[in-house]
Write a structure and sequence with these properties.
There is one protein chain. The chain has one domain. Helix content is 19%, strand content 48%. It contains one helix and three strands, in the order E-H-E-E. It has a three-stranded antiparallel sheet, with helices on one face. 4% of the residues are buried.
Length: 52
């Protein structure tokens, strides 16, 4: 059975692609994006499989 680890990160609207690409290069899969504390910020939830 796979084991997962999770992370959250703030995402700035003007730099979304660069931030998501960086997390993706590290093996993280984007699960969900939700609104942050103000309209210019989002919060991203990521997961990746834990190494055995």
């Amino acid at each position: 059975m796979a084991k997962w680890e999770y992370a959250t990160a703030p995402i700035l609207v003007h730099a979304t692609k660069q931030i998501l690409d960086t997390w993706g290069e590290d093996g993280w899969e984007l699960v969900q994006v939700v609104p942050g504390m103000n309209p210019e910020n989002l919060v991203a939830y990521f997961k990746r499989e834990k190494p055995e």
